[in-house]
Design brief:
By secondary structure, this protein is an alpha+beta fold. Helices cover 47% and strands 17% of the residues. The chain has helices at 4-19, 26-46, 67-83, 86-113, 171-184; strands at 56-59, 116-121, 124-127, 134-136, 140-146, 151-156, 162-165. The strands form two sheets. Strands 1-2-3-4 form a four-stranded antiparallel sheet, with no helix packed on it. The chain has a three-stranded antiparallel sheet with strand order 5-6-7, covered by helices on one side.
Length: 203
């Protein structure tokens, strides 16, 4: 949260200068873009240093790059270039690419550091990512698996669902996580029939 407000404020200032054609000096525009990038990067990087008291925790093996973010950035880049002079919208275009660039960098950092990103303490599930979502596992009502995105979707009684991307973790860790989820839930939940973990060959 401490990075979110500065991030929005910086984008607002830069966007206002471009949309209103305010004569911001080139150096100021570049500085704003650099600060926007650094704020977004630091928000993601700060996650690596988070730790929670827990009975069970899992390391991320990697961080997947979102194809959706890349497509959105490409779409708006094309649209803005077609409908305006390239030089007039270059800084707006760069705003749309900030998230994809940060994701690309974080992909390699996660591969190297393999931070803990899933924690369970008593009956509480904690995801170590932006907004740090927490859920009471007693209220877990359903586990679903999306074969396209490879996400486990966890539904809860009183709070919104959360997703866990299985391809970012070891299959054995996800299997153990599923067992704990089922054990702690007060409802009739089970491993989705369409979930097929990759089993390591023992040879």
């Amino acid at each position: 949260m401490k990075y979110f407000i500065p991030f929005i404020l910086l984008i607002t200032i830069l966007a206002y200068g471009q949309v209103k054609r305010t004569e911001f000096p080139l150096a100021l525009n570049i500085l704003l873009i650099v600060l926007i990038f650094l704020t977004s990067f630091l928000e993601d990087y700060a996650i690596l240093n988070n730790d929670y008291e827990s009975d069970f925790k899992i390391r991320s093996q990697t961080k997947k790059i979102s194809i959706f973010s890349f497509v959105i950035a490409s779409f708006w880049t094309t649209l803005l270039i077609i409908n305006d002079n390239y030089s007039n919208v270059i800084f707006i275009i760069l705003i749309f690419w900030v998230h994809s660039i940060v994701e690309f960098i974080m992909h390699f950092i996660y591969n190297a550091k393999k931070p803990f990103t899933i924690f369970i303490k008593d009956n509480e599930l904690i995801l170590n990512k932006r907004w740090h979502p927490k859920r009471n596992l007693n209220e877990l009502t359903q586990i679903q698996f999306d074969r396209f995105s490879k996400n486990l979707k966890l539904d809860f009684k009183s709070k919104s669902e959360i997703s866990i991307k299985t391809t970012e973790y070891n299959a054995d860790d996800i299997q153990k996580l599923l067992e704990i989820l089922i054990e702690k839930s007060e409802n009739n939940v089970f491993i989705p029939n369409n979930y097929e973990p990759k089993i390591k060959n023992s040879c």
